[in-house]
Specification:
mainly alpha, Four Helix Bundle (Hemerythrin (Met), subunit A)
């Protein structure tokens, strides 16, 4: 009994410590982290987009792998959009992220959902469904960038 109580206390302490560490992250570091995630999203989405557009031959194995990575990566950047980062130069984020948090959260959820649907479609082996879902993921990325990212 004493051993399990100790384990609970340790787990809670680690959880609080992790949250405190995130709260202490410098705004510049948060921007760097989210940009890194977005770069990786592009790395794994790009080849799939090329396949969907007929610019590269379709490869189901690459689609399965990349869709799995994208499914996970789509969950990662959102906690780095802390209000402390809104004045960081070269972040690329528009003020609308902080002015319209509900709309931003909706866009983030859409990417997460569409990425998960792509992962599911990739597992099915249905090339037509995969290509259609790649298009849906691309649209969710583009819609978010249109509203919340500076033009590049």
């Amino acid at each position: 009994m004493k051993r399990s109580a100790t384990a609970v206390v340790v787990a809670l302490a680690l959880g609080v410590g992790a949250g405190a560490a995130m709260a202490q992250a410098k705004p510049e570091q948060l921007v760097k982290q989210r940009q890194s995630v977005m770069t990786l999203q592009g790395k794994y989405f790009g080849p799939m987009a090329a396949m969907a557009q007929g610019k590269a031959p379709y490869n189901a194995d690459i689609v399965k792998r990349n869709a799995a990575f994208l499914d996970n990566l789509s969950l990662m950047p959102w906690d780095t959009f802390d209000p402390s980062t809104k004045d960081v130069k070269n972040s690329g984020a528009l003020p609308a992220i902080y002015e319209q948090p509900g709309k931003f959260k909706e866009a983030a959820s859409r990417l997460e959902n569409e990425s998960h649907k792509l992962y599911t479609a990739a597992q099915s082996g249905d090339e037509a469904a995969v290509k259609a879902q790649i298009g849906a993921v691309g649209k969710s990325c583009g819609a978010c960038h249109e509203s919340f990212r500076q033009k590049q």
